[in-house]
Amino acid sequence: MPSRVIAGTALHTPTRGRFEALEDVLILVDAIGRISEILPRDHPRFAEIKAQAERQGNLTELQEGQFLLPGLVDLHIHAPQWPQLGKALDAPLEVWLQRYTFPLESRYADLSFAREVYSALVETLLANGTTTAVYFATIHLEASLALAEICLAKGQRAFVGKVAMDDARQCPDFYRDASASTAVNETRAFIQSVRDRAGEEDPLVHPIITPRFIPSCTDALLEGLGKLAEETGCLVQTHCSASDWESNFVQERFGATDTAVLSQFGLLRENTILAHSNFVTDEDLALIRQKGAAIAHCPLSNFYFANAVFPLRAALDKCVRVGLGSDISAGHSPSVLDGCRHALLASRARHSGIDPHLPPEERGLAGSTISVAEAFWLATVGGGEALGLPIGKFAPGFKFDALVMDLNAHGSNINWLPDLDTIEDVFQKLVLNATRSNIVMTWVNGAVVARSSAAQMRDDQAKQ
């Protein structure tokens, strides 16, 4: 028998741009949190398995107005910037880092401060449906390990990176690695420590090699981290072509694009996560695809710092792996569903253009839009493919990372009319209108890791 059986209707986008409703099914989850079977209502053992699971206390049955969505994947989060969310967005990137961000991140030398912030962050993201998170931490070894430990304790699937940054020309004296060798050695120690804590077999939390971005790293550090990636098989994350300033800086220093430079240093690898990538060329996209790397599209923070709209449609059409990133705190929303909405808006801005003084045919780049189903695919399957993980959809062999969405939740913004709305209408309303209040339960790896207060109250009443 399965470890857990979930009865209800599940909505997902198993392939890019294709919505699918699994109506009135049983999802069977095994002891390691993996979907073993999905049974339609006309399956000969449907009633038997459901009744047996109910007798054994292993059945979760969705109520009227409740639907399952896959867990959301956030490919780019700056965990230490959580206290900065919703403020300090008044300066260009190069000023923002020096004025606000580096001083804040330097505070994580205080381990008690780090634990307090990181605990609140992980709890909030789980409540907002982020079941898989890719984190930049800070240069501090112990605080970065604390973030990994908190993700493990709270049950969030995560990739956690101790940030490496050593170039005195771009990093302040109070916040940088002492040397390239120190940064590489501490990254190596961090990788081993996380693996010791998470276990070697199918770990929930992974270390990830994290050069902040090319301007903050010396050649020696970039070279050392590239060799470390080859040695350990660790994934890599960094920023790529994030703004005019950053892209121009790299061109002036190396005479090449970020993508080409990262490749030269061995940092553009299978499942490398490149945040932003707004100024990538066609040659860059071809190289990213060839290497099996992926782009974390961060549409909200791009509006603040990139000075350009990422060519999402072009990347997708070239079969480059792409997922979504919130880019906390340069992005001021912790919701990946908001990321879907921002991605849709960014694609329409790129398609339609922004200058009303130009004729319509000259105003934008036609053919740049994405659909709601594509946006949600980016937030789920796309993110999973970027990381090389079986997550993001409901299928045998995939991890059961899921959200119970309640259209009737207290405080819901969704107006649901069963006689008028099709099941696809419901899906679109969830993607475009759902808020934290609609997420009443969050599952990771087959375990419940977050419940809304209303859901918790119902559970407590049921036990009485």
From TrEMBL:
Biological-process GO terms, alphabetical: guanine catabolic process
Catalytic reaction list: guanine + H2O + H(+) = xanthine + NH4(+)
Entry GO terms, CC: cytosol
UniProt-listed Enzyme Commission number(s): 3.5.4.3
Pfam families: Amidohydro_1
Keyword entries, A-Z: Hydrolase, Metal-binding, Zinc
Function: Catalyzes the hydrolytic deamination of guanine, producing xanthine and ammonia.
Family in the record: Belongs to the metallo-dependent hydrolases superfamily. ATZ/TRZ family.
Protein name: Guanine deaminase
Species whose genome carries this gene: Microvirga guangxiensis
